[in-house]
Amino acid sequence: MVKDLVCGMDVDEKTAKNKTSYKGKIYYFCSPACKKSFESNPEKYAGKK
Ligand SMILES: [Zn+2]
Fold it and tell me: What distance in angstroms lies between residue 21's CA and the mean position of ligand 1's atoms?
């Protein structure tokens, strides 16, 4: 499982349909809405631990 950095939910990377790559890393999301939020401001989310 990986974390959806936008809402904090756990996402199964094997079944996740909502994903994007940023700076060479793949990020997974629970929904298209979270994916959109990430893509509109990736540094805000990817910078978090
Ligand atoms: Zn989410």
Answer: 16
